[in-house]
């Protein structure tokens, strides 16, 4: 069969470019029993769905607005913008009577069944593993998710009201109902773009062939099929033809224990080389993450932060862990640092493996409020906060699932190192409460193991979804 020419207007906008957002809702829903009515109503949602072409235009608008304000010496006002995307779980496809097999084992089984493999903490109940998730994610009734993004919470509420009308929510004719809503918002002021531990996020993404035609130095370009089903580079054959230009979305509701993380860094500050205690804990944090809070990669700035480097897109991704001794020592970067575990670059490429098929596009958003003075003083989390992790790929088993299980949780990864790297200190995990360790954090005593007494990232739920193309929504999903 012939593959239709690529058209960005067919692809939902969050996948390849990302819905611009200061706030975001993930409305996780169950389809009600009148499935035909739901699929008819879906026709009215489709015009609201933001395509890749529209997101590109929105981003140009934002950039022009910023430039105009700067030329007048003003701070740019946010433009009112709202974006909508939709994705379905396997249970949702089944509910709608769509029986084609998308040939993705993780998607088909659903994330609840995968939670044990992912290493999520939990326990056996009557012979079944039950992760320590919130009840909403344990019922097995999640059929889909509607993403609404916007410049502020009020814009999102407006869009949400429109969408609720489409599905008659709250009336006897409702065709869907909310299971739960995850409410994301970026952090305030200078923390905008930083995750809750304080580190700038969203720096390293793969560039997509034909879309990101002007990649930054060091940014890997991947074939479209690494992210989009049915395109060049999608290694899974014989998928239904309507699946082309869709993408699998791995959604994870990850709680972060920020005061506990900060206390650990304080209590285990690196010493020597004239480091003050504060500098020693900052350096340890940077070595656990692989980047300084500013975003500067420690492979390029191993001893002290370089905020200008962190900000500079032409330099902040231009490294491979291939400086002299990088492959055999952790003088610059621990083998198990989060960014190195999740994208090992030269660790694999220089021993003959490509990392292309493991790349994912991350579109997460923070949730929850800033740490309160009481939480900081007590060192104990009292309010919920963390990351709504959302990653797109054309295959979950080769993407998110592989990175979590075979890289982050695998103590022997990256391979062929002179000592065992250990767990990814941010997201590496086991089902039980055994103490995680990693090595290489102290550049002056590399084989020393550091024990991580608690997990600071706690998975509390999630699901795998398929984000169909706009034509598929029209012809296969809507009636
Ligand atoms: C990069 C934080 C969860 C995969 C990063 C960066 C930060 C970060 C600060 C560096 C910024 C960048 O390079 O873009 C976190 C936090 C998490 C979390 C706080 C949990 C609360 C995850 C999960 C995965 C993941 C669950 C996948 C299983 C990645 C990847 C990169 C990355 C692939 C890019 C690495 C590179 O290309 O150099 N993360 N992350 N992260 N993270 Fe995470």
List its salient traits:
479 residues; 5-stranded antiparallel β-sheet; 4-stranded antiparallel β-sheet; 19% strand; binds protoporphyrin IX containing FE; DyP_N; signal; Dyp_perox_C
Structural account:
By secondary structure, the chain is an alpha+beta fold. The protein has a domain at 8-253 and 463-477. 26% of the residues lie in helices and 19% in strands. Helix 8 (258-267) crosses helix 9. It starts with 12 loop residues before the first helix and ends with a helix. A hairpin with a 2-residue loop joins strand 3 (122-125) and strand 4 (128-131). The strands form five sheets. Strands 9, 10, 11, 12 and 15 form a five-stranded antiparallel beta sheet that branches. The chain has 15 helices and 15 strands. Bound molecules: protoporphyrin IX containing FE (HEM). Protoporphyrin IX containing FE is lined by residues 195, 197, 199, 201-204, 252, 254, 256, 289, 291, 338-339, 342-343, 360, 362, 386-387, 389, 400, 403-404, 408, 426-427, 457. InterPro entries: Dimeric_a/b-barrel, DyP_N, Dyp_perox_C, Dyp_peroxidase. Keywords: Heme, Iron, Metal-binding, Oxidoreductase, Peroxidase, Signal. Residues 332-407 form the Dyp-type peroxidase C-terminal domain.
């Amino acid at each position: 069969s012939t593959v239709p020419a690529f058209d960005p207007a067919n692809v939902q906008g969050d996948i390849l470019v990302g819905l611009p957002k200061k706030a975001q809702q993930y409305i996780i829903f169950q389809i009600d029993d009148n499935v035909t009515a739901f699929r008819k109503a879906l026709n009215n949602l489709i015009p609201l769905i933001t395509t890749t072409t529209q997101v590109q235009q929105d981003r140009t608008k934002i950039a022009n607005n910023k430039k105009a304000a700067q030329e007048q010496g003003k701070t740019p006002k946010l433009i009112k913008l709202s974006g909508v995307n939709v994705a379905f779980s396997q249970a949702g496809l089944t509910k709608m009577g769509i029986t084609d097999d998308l040939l993705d084992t993780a998607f088909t089984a659903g994330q609840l069944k995968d939670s044990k493999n992912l290493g999520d903490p939990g326990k056996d109940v009557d012979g079944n593993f039950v992760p320590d998730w919130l009840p909403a994610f344990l019922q097995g009734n999640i059929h889909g998710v509607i993403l609404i993004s916007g410049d502020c919470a009020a814009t999102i509420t407006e869009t949400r009201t429109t969408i609720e009308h489409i599905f008659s929510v709250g009336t006897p004719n409702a065709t869907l109902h909310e299971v739960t809503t995850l409410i994301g918002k970026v952090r305030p002021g200078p923390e905008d773009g930083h995750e809750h531990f304080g580190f700038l996020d969203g720096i390293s993404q793969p560039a997509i062939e034909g879309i990101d035609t002007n990649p930054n130095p060091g940014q890997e370009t991947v074939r479209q099929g690494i992210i989009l089903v049915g395109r060049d580079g999608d290694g899974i054959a014989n998928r239904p033809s309507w699946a082309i230009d869709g993408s699998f979305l791995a959604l994870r509701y990850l709680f972060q224990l920020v005061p506990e993380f900060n206390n650990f860094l304080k209590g285990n500050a690196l010493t020597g080389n004239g480091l003050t205690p504060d500098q020693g804990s900052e350096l340890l944090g940077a070595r656990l993450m692989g980047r300084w809070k500013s975003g500067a990669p420690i492979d390029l700035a191993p001893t002290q932060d370089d905020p200008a480097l962190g900000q500079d897109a032409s330099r902040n991704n231009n490294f491979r862990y291939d400086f002299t001794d990088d492959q055999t020592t952790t003088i610059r970067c621990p083998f198990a640092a989060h960014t190195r575990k999740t994208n090992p670059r030269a660790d694999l490429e220089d021993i003959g493996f490509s990392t292309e098929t493991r790349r994912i596009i991350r579109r997460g958003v923070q949730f929850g409020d800033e740490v309160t003075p009481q939480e900081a003083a007590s060192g104990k989390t009292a309010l919920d906060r963390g990351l709504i992790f959302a990653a797109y790929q054309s295959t979950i088993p080769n993407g998110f699932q592989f990175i979590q299980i075979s890289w982050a949780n695998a103590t022997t990864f990256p391979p062929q190192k002179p000592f065992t790297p250990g767990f990814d200190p941010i997201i590496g995990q086991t089902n039980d409460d055994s103490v995680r360790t990693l090595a290489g954090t102290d550049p002056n005593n590399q084989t020393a193991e550091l024990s991580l007494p608690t997990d600071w990232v706690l998975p509390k739920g999630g699901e795998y979804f398929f984000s169909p193309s706009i034509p598929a929504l029209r012809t296969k999903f809507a009636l």
